[in-house]
Design a protein that fits this description.
Blueprint (H helix, E strand, L loop, with lengths): L1 H16 L4 H13 L3 H9 L7 H13 L3 H26 L6 H13 L5 H37 L6 H45 L7 H18 L1 H41 L7 H21 L23 H13 L11 H12 L42 H24 L1
């Protein structure tokens, strides 16, 4: 029975689960044995990848009916044991009936004690025959009981092995199923714990601010951490409020300055566009010149370079996690070459111009092969009134110098024309 069931599950596992393995067969049998109904069995296998189809439900019903179940075996064993006890009691009651009269029992006992020694042999033989008869009756009853029990077991579970081996297999199957069920529950528990740890780690990573070892990022992270602490401490927030206000005021003035400069630049452009081609008063001209002067002074002040002309330690391009920031590393490596670049408003000396011209002339050119081919998009234009008429173009053909072949052809053409005219006249 077990081998047939395993073969049936193996044949259908490839179609339903996509693979056939001993572990899957054992899991299906264990689930069928531990499930209380086909619906619970289907729910357990559906979580493992079983599709919700008609073939799957037929497979569930067939396996559930053929799979051994723990509670059924226990109930069968208990009922068989109780039946054997009842039959043994019946046999004992038949062989040793209850004595209702105490006097008869006592007289029988006295009679046995008073029997003479001469009757001992006959009594012994009589008791021997009685024991043999009782033994045969007991053996016949036991055989009949065993035969009935065996017949009932065969009717219930056809194709099974003897009771002793079957009981051992059932116990082994129960132990194996219990072990697999325990392992399955442990795996589910470990999976849930792992998922919870991953979720908690992602949550902590989202909330945590990664502090960098560089001066700028580290300072920003420290300020953020300090602000978080101030949010929880009312007394510390009260003490730090003046410095926070001053710092916020400085940041606001910096942004406000850039905004006002851009606004002044747009205002000057609007005035120039409005007064263009017009005569304006002296007051308006003085106001426009004042705005231009203010803008010039502000831009010059913004262009002042406070960079110290000396060696400065570069920023660390290794982050707190031990990784290399590629952009920061490139900035450190190529920063020394950025100082040689000319700015747009930087004054160019004669030496700089001479070096640029020498560099330009020193570039090697291979010749005409790398030149771009120039396609002419125009043509010569002549005046038709001044066109020269050449002699060959104005030469007229002679007369009377046709060949015989040309004459024959000309004659055929004229005849065809005459026939065509005559047919038109006749038709009309």
């Amino acid at each position: 029975m077990s081998s047939d069931l395993q073969r049936y599950i193996s044949d259908n596992a490839m179609q339903l689960f996509g693979l056939s393995d001993k572990s899957i067969i054992d899991y299906v049998i264990a689930s069928a044995s531990s499930s209380k109904s086909p619906e619970a069995f289907f729910t357990a296998l559906n979580a493992s990848g079983l599709p919700d189809t008609t073939e799957a439900h037929a497979f569930i019903n067939e396996v559930y009916q053929r799979a051994p179940r723990k509670h059924k075996h226990k109930r069968t064993e208990d009922s068989a044991r109780k039946q054997a006890e009842r039959e043994a009691k019946n046999l004992r009651s038949k062989q040793f009936p209850l004595l209702t009269d105490d006097d008869d029992g006592s007289s029988g006992v006295v009679e046995l004690k008073k029997k003479s020694k001469s009757l001992g042999k006959d009594q012994h033989e009589r008791h021997t025959r009685k024991r043999e008869t009782d033994g045969r009756e007991w053996e016949s009853d036991e055989e009949e009981t065993a035969r009935k029990r065996r017949k009932g077991n065969e009717d219930r579970t056809r194709g099974r092995r003897p009771d002793g081996e079957e009981r051992m297999d059932v116990e082994g199957l129960e132990n194996e199923d219990a072990r697999r069920e325990r392992e399955r529950l442990e795996d589910l528990k470990e999976r849930d714990e792992f998922a919870e740890r991953v979720k908690q780690r992602d949550s902590d990573r989202t909330k945590r601010i990664v502090e960098d070892r560089s001066s700028k990022d580290k300072g920003a992270a420290a300020d953020a951490a300090q602000r978080r602490k101030l949010a929880d401490d009312t007394a510390a927030r009260t003490l730090a409020m003046p410095s926070l206000r001053e710092h916020s005021r400085q940041e606001y003035l910096t942004k406000r300055e850039l905004q006002q400069v851009e606004l002044l630049r747009k205002e000057i452009a609007d005035d120039e566009a409005l007064f263009q081609g017009m005569r304006i008063s002296k007051r308006e001209q003085r106001e426009l010149d004042r705005k231009k002067e203010v803008l010039r002074l502000v831009e010059e002040r913004l262009k002042i370079d406070d960079k110290w002309d000396g060696y400065m330690l570069p920023e660390d391009y290794i982050t707190e996690q031990g990784k290399i920031d590629k952009k920061r590393k490139e900035n450190v490596l190529f920063q020394r070459y950025e100082e040689a670049k000319l700015k747009d408003d930087q004054f160019v000396t004669d030496v700089d111009q001479w070096e640029a011209s020498q560099t330009k002339h020193s570039i090697f050119k291979s010749g005409a092969m790398d030149k771009v081919e120039i396609v002419e998009d125009y043509d010569y234009v002549f005046d038709e009134s001044q066109t020269i008429k050449f002699v060959m173009e104005s030469t007229m053909g002679g007369e009377g110098h046709t060949s015989a072949k040309d004459k024959l052809l000309q004659q055929q053409i004229q005849e065809a024309e005459e026939r065509g005219e005559s047919s038109l006249i006749a038709f009309s």
